Amino acid sequence: MPRGRAAVRAVVDVSFDVRAGECLALVGESGCGKSVLASALLGLLPANAETAGHARLGGADLLTAGERVLARQVRGRLAGLIPQSPAAHLTPVRTIRSQLEETVAELTGVRGRAALRTAAEQVAARAAFPAGHLDRHPHELSGGLAQRAATALALAGDAPLLIADEPTTGLDRDLVDHTVDELRRHVDDGAGRALLMITHDLAAAERIADRVAVMYAGRVVELTSAGAFFGTPGPRHPYSRGLLDALPDRAFAPIPGLPPPLDALPPGCAFAPRCAFADRACAVTPTTLSGVACHHPREDVHAA
Ligand SMILES: Nc1ncnc2c1ncn2[C@@H]1O[C@H](COP(=O)(O)OP(=O)(O)OP(=O)(O)O)[C@@H](O)[C@H]1O
Ligand code: NI
């Protein structure tokens, strides 16, 4: 942080794991810290950012590894990232084919022009990127196709962990379902890959996730199985319930108020100012018990 500017604690007290063959959906409103978390895992935060803690993947600790290790062993190889704004991550002056071939050459043992061409076409196909568009430049692609190109690049190294940051933004519903199903197939094909899917699209999360982590104001406030979250008994944190109730096919009732700016968090539970159950206990930051960080998780409300 530059001198004289307040540090923003964008992500605090986050603890979760993603297992081989599993998809964990990380959900929460815009600005709650989802992308900061993804960037931290891959060492992609701005140089003045500070991180603390551990993030283990294979034999590496992603938060303490140096840039050399991250660049040579982690990014693309252990963890592939589908970035939030794919168009911004594609090189504008080169065709998708040449970017894919270069990435395949860098991340895999494939050598030779013909073999690289075939491998690039295969990885494009896995991301449902049409072969007929491979010779286009990024600016000639629709948002959906740029998304697929970025997905192909993220898949090229066949990394055991894929982090997809809002991979369905801007797509219409059919394409959302299609993209989500492709990502799910990537996890299900028996190779033991894991997927961290960052999204504020709860319908997409329901379609793909095994477990759901809900983030609010930089913290994971609930972590539970997708079945319990979307089905019965439903989420336990009032914020999670509010997110579900806001859906058009549920109560269609938005959560009142707005999330606090991360540089001006209220003391105690950051959700309390928007919470119908808030009381004096909420002046203290809740600890996480059985996957929920709340003084009034649902059982308590019913018991009262
Ligand atoms: N380099 C930075 N310096 C200061 N604040 C930052 C920086 N990067 C991100 N932030 C702040 O961190 C917060 C979290 O941002 P982040 O992009 O992780 O949100 P998000 O949950 O991914 O939201 P969205 O759904 O809009 O992508 C935001 O309030 C943002 O303003
Ligand atoms: Ni984001």
Automatic annotation (TrEMBL):
Intracellular or extracellular location(s): Cell membrane
Keywords from the named record: ATP-binding, Cell membrane, Ion transport, Membrane, Nickel, Nickel transport, Nucleotide-binding, Translocase, Transport
Domain ABC transporter: 2-242
Main enzyme class: translocase
InterPro entries linked: AAA+_ATPase (IPR003593), ABC_Ni/Peptide_Import (IPR050388), ABC_transporter-like_ATP-bd (IPR003439), Oligopep_ABC_C (IPR013563), P-loop_NTPase (IPR027417)
Keyword Oxidoreductase recorded: no
Reactions listed under catalytic activity: Ni(2+)(out) + ATP + H2O = Ni(2+)(in) + ADP + phosphate + H(+)
Keyword check for Cell membrane: yes
GO molecular-function term, one example from the UniProt record: ATP binding
EC number: 7.2.2.11
Topology of this chain in the membrane: Peripheral membrane protein
Record note on quaternary structure: The complex is composed of two ATP-binding proteins (NikD and NikE), two transmembrane proteins (NikB and NikC) and a solute-binding protein (NikA).
Family: Belongs to the ABC transporter superfamily.
Protein name (database record): Nickel import system ATP-binding protein NikD
Record organism: Streptomyces fragilis
